[in-house]
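Sample pair:
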Amino acid sequence: MLTPADAEARERLELLRVLGIEEFPTGATDMPIR
């Protein structure tokens, strides 16, 4: 099993884990019409 070398690496991996499950809107349909 691989583990992060230090606290900074551990925090970055945790952030990636959280962002990896987020869905971000894309495309012109998500933009408000001016």
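The helical segments are 7-19.
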